[in-house]
Amino acid sequence: MSESTSPERAAAHGKLFPDAQAALAGIVADDQTLAVGGFGLCGIPEALIAALRDSGVKGLTVISNNAGVDGFGLGLLLATRQIRKMISSYVGENKEFERQFLAGELELEFNPQGTLAERLRAGGAGIPAFFTATGYGTVVAEGKETREFDGKHYVMETALKADVALVKAWKADRAGNLVFRRTARNFNPACAMAGRICVAEVEEVVETGALDPDAVHLPGIYVDRIVLNPTPEKRIEQRTVRTEGAK
């Protein structure tokens, strides 16, 4: 291990690292499972995804609600063929994803959206599996254990855990306590808790103690590293506006 990625050097940073590349150094590797926050392009860790692409790691299994779009978000990793498998809910905005999947070049594990969220939450909470009525009697339930409770049928779903979680928050203190902004919270807290190591990309960093404890959405105990990205692109996936004068 080089000096730049040694535990002693990492400790010198505290939790705040100078850039996304440094924040990923020594913790990402081939064939890992990653949990990546975001919904569409809302609340995605843009700088960390780009740094992950530049790291060259491959054979990744990525747990994320969707796969970004062509040329942005997780679409960057699809273009470089670094993702081997996606565990997702919605993947309809990425033509390269479609091409790779239909060609048999990319594995896909589809989940109902609520089931995906609960599988991540269970992973973070140490719950190995749970039963849900969602998907019973459909292809979602194929090969899975089913049981009946009080006359209703349920499917057993297993928890999801990741080697590394990459998440996006609005604000952090130096202890790693996170505050998310509105709908950009989405899957980020669940991904953070499901990761063995969590790296958070944030737009603002304040001193420890500066955040109102009641305003903290995710305690710093779940966050190992922080990187500041004060000017994310925040690309809009599909802009929909009302015509002027419309009621």
TrEMBL record:
<dbReference type="InterPro" id="IPR012792">
    <property type="entry name" value="3-oxoacid_CoA-transf_A"/>
</dbReference>
<dbReference type="InterPro" id="IPR037171">
    <property type="entry name" value="NagB/RpiA_transferase-like"/>
</dbReference>
<protein>
    <submittedName>
        <fullName>CoA transferase subunit A</fullName>
    </submittedName>
</protein>
<dbReference type="GO" id="GO:0016740">
    <property type="term" value="F:transferase activity"/>
</dbReference>
<dbReference type="InterPro" id="IPR004165">
    <property type="entry name" value="CoA_trans_fam_I"/>
</dbReference>
<dbReference type="Pfam" id="PF01144">
    <property type="entry name" value="CoA_trans"/>
</dbReference>
<keyword id="KW-0808">Transferase</keyword>
